[in-house]
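HUMAN: Ready with one sample?

ASSISTANT:
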Amino acid sequence: MKKLAHILLLALAMICASNATAQRIHGYVNAGMAGAEIEGDELKGMKHWGFTGGVGAIAQITDNGMFSLAIEADYSCRGVTNRQTVKENYYNILMDLHYVDIPLTFFYHDPYGGLNIGLGFVYGRLVSQPSGQIRYNPNFFVPDTTNMMFLKNDFSPAIEIRFDVWRGLQFSARYQYSLLKVKENWMFHDVANNKTWYNDCYNSSLLLRLIWQFGDDDTYTGHKKGKKSKRRY
């Protein structure tokens, strides 16, 4: 966790330096909840919710303010949760995966609807391996718990929507899905049918966050006077 703190502090220092030297670059902080599931765990539904938060900077890359580029350093808790009663083909699990995410996102600002629509890419670094417990009914369905190691790197395309709440405050919804597997060959065994199979696993995450962007009053006015919606770079 010390490495995580160092990364976030370094990112914040870079943001502050950028704000001091470039009017088109603005720093922000964010915090919220991350809903997650692991594709390949034989469970359905985004039932795992954990904290996400970090720092970022966004830069206007066109004179009319229609396009911008954002980079962040975030902490995100992902994993899998299933608290159903143990029954055939299901098992109970509470498992956390702790990541440091570095998203890079290009945004388009809709001057009429006021939405900021982003497409980007997220590099995630696993900083803490699974913790928690798995419970199952050995008469029906047995996941392999002898090797719960996940791969360190996670690469995810992402889509994000942001909109203004009040002045420097924005709401953000971002969905990302692993491009490459995060765990290989997780073994499952169906005792009743004496069948064994192996799954590759992928992270699927929905991040719901509030963003507070730093800047003076000019930051929150429209990118051009007379436009139909407000704009922050």
User: Anything to note?
Assistant: The longest strand covers residues 116-136. The longest helix spans residues 2-21.
